[in-house]
Amino acid sequence: TPQQNGVAERRNRTIMNMVRCLLSEKELPRSFWPDAARWTAYILNRSVTKAIKDKVPEERWTGMKPKVSYFRVFGSIGHVHIPVQKRIKLDDRSHKCILLGVSEESKAYRLYDPIAKKYIISRDVIFEE
Fold first, then answer.
1. Cα 72 → chain centroid
2. Which of 52-56, 60-64, 76-80 has the highest mean pLDDT?
């Protein structure tokens, strides 16, 4: 029952409060809530907590200090590079997508293409922040 695991329930509440803020701030539809929750948990695992002194959770698990220099604002617009092989002479060199986090499979960003209505994983992104 929730009463037996107050710490986990409180953490879930924190995550869902952050999810609401992320979606509201960028005026994104509620359908993106799983992506916002994944990004929130990713950030919290790389942030300082009162429970762990001098280290972040990720550092406790892996023994290595996490890099956060690649963090970007959730929901921001990113221009994803289109490779030369997939375009012709006068085509755009990039297209706009929405940042939804980072890929779990590779060192790349996870984005959503609203025109094609599909998810994209790419490292070649320039963000409007």
1. 8
2. 76-80
Identify residue 9 by its one-letter amino acid code.
E
Query: Residue 1: what pLDDT?
Result: 64
Q: Decide the pairing of beta strands 118-122 and 125-128.
A: unpaired
Say how far residue 35 (Cα) sits from the centre of its chain: 7
Q: CB neighbours of 40 closer than 8 A, spacing ≥ 6?
A: 15, 18, 19, 22
How many Cβ atoms are within 10 Å of 22's Cβ, its own excluded?
Answer: 22
pTM of the predicted protein model: 0.84
> In DSSP terms, which residues pair with 95 in a beta bridge?
80
d(CA 7, CA 48) in angstroms, rounded, equals: 16
Q: 3-state SS string over 27-71?
A: CCCHHHHHHHHHHHHHHHCCCCCCCCCCCCHHHHHHCCCCCCCCC
Tell me the three state secondary structure of residue 12. Answer: helix
